[in-house]
Amino acid sequence: MAAMVIKTLCIGCGVCSQMCPKQAITVRVKTAHVDETLCDECEECVFACPNGAITV
């Protein structure tokens, strides 16, 4: 299962997309979005998110 964004917690800061080694996360309309076909569940985004808005 790919990473999932909890939209109510996401502030669209982009830290997760900068940390993703697979470039699977983009920020659109102030919310992060995960491309499930690219995500390899490395959890870098989970640790990088300052609001705890991403889970795997």
UniProtKB/TrEMBL annotation:
<protein>
    <submittedName>
        <fullName>4Fe-4S dicluster domain-containing protein</fullName>
    </submittedName>
</protein>
<dbReference type="GO" id="GO:0051536">
    <property type="term" value="F:iron-sulfur cluster binding"/>
</dbReference>
<feature type="domain" description="4Fe-4S ferredoxin-type">
    <location>
        <begin position="1"/>
        <end position="30"/>
    </location>
</feature>
<dbReference type="GO" id="GO:0046872">
    <property type="term" value="F:metal ion binding"/>
</dbReference>
<keyword id="KW-0408">Iron</keyword>
<keyword id="KW-0479">Metal-binding</keyword>
<dbReference type="InterPro" id="IPR017900">
    <property type="entry name" value="4Fe4S_Fe_S_CS"/>
</dbReference>
<feature type="domain" description="4Fe-4S ferredoxin-type">
    <location>
        <begin position="32"/>
        <end position="56"/>
    </location>
</feature>
<dbReference type="Pfam" id="PF12838">
    <property type="entry name" value="Fer4_7"/>
</dbReference>
<dbReference type="InterPro" id="IPR017896">
    <property type="entry name" value="4Fe4S_Fe-S-bd"/>
</dbReference>
<keyword id="KW-0411">Iron-sulfur</keyword>
